[in-house]
Design a protein that fits this description.
The chain is 53% helix and 9% strand. The protein is α/β, with parallel strands linked by helices. The protein has 3 domains: 170 residues, Rossmann fold (3-Layer(aba) Sandwich); 250 residues, N-(1-d-carboxylethyl)-l-norvaline Dehydrogenase, domain 2 (Orthogonal Bundle), CATH 1.10.1040; 38 residues, Single alpha-helices involved in coiled-coils or other helix-helix interfaces.
Length: 487
């Protein structure tokens, strides 16, 4: 069983690694699996059945089972575990072998690993994988980047195991170096934003309108049959119908209100700030998970700063429709922020991303798959250099048609004392992006007043500084080459 006959190897036989490996086996590929945990290897052997699958906890045996040049997919947690696997397998590899990192690795780490391995003439591909346990088993969305020749070697198996939408495989070569992992990071940032929008919609409907779990389930099911159809809306409906076996209560009511995170949303926000790309709804979603973790402080504050029971006095049916439209508008706006970041990253890091392709492979398999992605794909198909998704003529009409609903939801949330930060930042981003003149002239005046940071004028070219508060306050051209502290 351990002869050199296996086309691809998988390191890490946890949920994702095991399911991807079985998926490959289902499509007729011969695959070897390795895990330090002998129990996981033995379990996979039993589960493999008649598939061409071999599993072991012996690294030397694993490497020896692979055809040369070897292709090895690493499915281990991001960070130190990836470096540990590379360190362990490197002595056993040969020139032209290929390592694929299928974890949620930080894109700058991917760049460093690719550089180190290329010096040893070993190929490296950083590949985002989305879809969770079910996606890995039955068809994920795959986001590979790195050396194009290396990708071409593994393209057939990736296409075979990926999700399919209207016959299109949800996988594509995205670009050089860390392009794949960067796209996956932004995918996760968008995911944070969409999840926060749905959480706030739940809060408004549950606390604000008094909807029961059964009514919430029905509402999300109705949403999933229309323009909001998506994986996240689908599972949200399912969540509200789940009953705990032991207590007989709804599981949702038994879950502590403290959100966890693994860092990819934070990486999205950090990268956006590095490149000066506004992504406020994504940023807020990260912040809100941090705020949720302050459970003890929130409980204490609720005693000193009591929250009144929210009451809604308007037309509940009409407000439910407004929430639905606000979620749809917020969804488009959140995608707009994430894709704007991808656009800038592509220029900054020379990824050469095709945004129509990105939208295409997100339509199936992944966590953020949604019906609206077909419209997003069409937008970039018609205009590849579209500056922002919100200025696509068709999507702009949809946003304008729903802006009053978004305003109504934000207004009602504020009046009832229900936090709705994602809705609020989505609305502010929408209004800010379409405002021809923002009050940033005052910001520049203040910066120049206290720090002589200079400003530009509307009536003359150049950079200027004013001696604020003095008698002679005629603007003067700034001294060329003068170093200034920025704030």
């Amino acid at each position: 069983m351990s002869s050199s006959t296996y086309e691809l190897g998988v390191v890490g036989l946890g949920v994702m690694g095991r399911n991807l490996l079985l998926n490959m086996g289902d499509h007729g590929y011969s695959v070897a699996g390795f895990d330090l945990d002998a129990g996981k290897a033995e379990s996979l052997k039993k589960e493999a059945g008649s598939r061409k699958i071999f599993a072991t906890s012996d690294l030397k045996e694993f490497i020896g089972a692979l055809k040369s040049p070897r292709a090895i997919l690493m499915m281990v947690p991001a960070g130190a575990p990836v470096d540990a696997v590379i360190r362990d397998v490197l002595p056993h590899l040969s020139e032209d072998d290929l390592l694929i990192d299928g974890g949620n690795s930080f894109f700058k780490d991917t760049n460093l690993r690719e550089k180190m391995l290329s010096e040893k003439k070993i190929f490296f591909v950083g590949m985002g994988v989305s879809g969770g346990e079910s996606g890995a088993r039955h068809g994920p969305s795959l986001m590979p980047g790195g050396n194009k020749d290396a990708y071409d070697r593994i393209h057939p198996v990736l296409e075979a195991i990926s999700a399919k939408v209207n016959g299109d495989a949800c996988v594509a070569y995205l670009g050089p170096s860390s392009a794949g992992h960067y796209v996956k990071i932004v995918h996760n940032g968008i995911e944070y934003g969409l999840i926060q929008l749905l959480a706030e919609a739940y809060d408004l409907m549950h606390r604000g309108l008094g909807l029961s779990n059964e009514e919430l389930k029905k509402t999300f099911e109705e949403w999933d049959r229309g323009e909001l159809k998506s994986y996240l809306v689908e599972i949200t409906a399912s969540i509200f119908g789940q009953i705990d076996d032991e207590s007989g209560k709804h599981v949702i009511d038994l879950i502590l209100d403290t959100s966890k995170q693994k860092g990819t949303g934070m990486w999205t926000a950090e990268s956006a700030m590095e490149m000066h790309v506004p992504t406020p709804t994504i940023d807020t979603s990260v912040v809100w998970r941090n705020l949720s973790s302050l459970k003890g402080e929130r409980q204490a504050a609720s005693q000193l700063l009591p929250v009144s029971t929210p009451t809604f006095s308007g037309d509940k049916r009409a407000f439910l429709e407004s929430i639905r439209n606000a979620v749809y508008a917020g969804t488009i706006i959140t995608f707009a922020q994430g894709i704007a970041l991808l656009r800038m990253a592509s220029k900054t890091y020379d990824y050469q991303l095709n945004l129509e392709t990105v939208a295409r492979i997100w339509r199936g398999g992944c966590i953020i798959r949604a019906a609206v992605l077909e419209k997003i794909r069409n937008a970039f198909g018609k205009q590849p250099d579209l500056a922002n998704l919100m200025v696509d003529p068709d999507l702009a009409k949809e946003l304008l048609a729903r802006q009053q609903d978004l305003r109504s939801v934000v207004r009602a949330a504020a009046e009832m004392g229900i936090p709705a930060a994602a809705f609020m930042t989505a609305l502010s981003y929408f209004d800010g992006y379409r405002t021809a003149r923002l009050p940033s002239n005052l910001t520049q005046a203040q910066r120049d007043y206290f720090g002589a940071h200079t400003y530009e004028r509307t009536d003359a070219k150049g950079v200027f500084h004013t001696h604020w508060g003095s008698v002679e306050n005629v603007p003067q051209p700034a001294l060329a080459g003068k170093e200034r502290q920025t704030l």
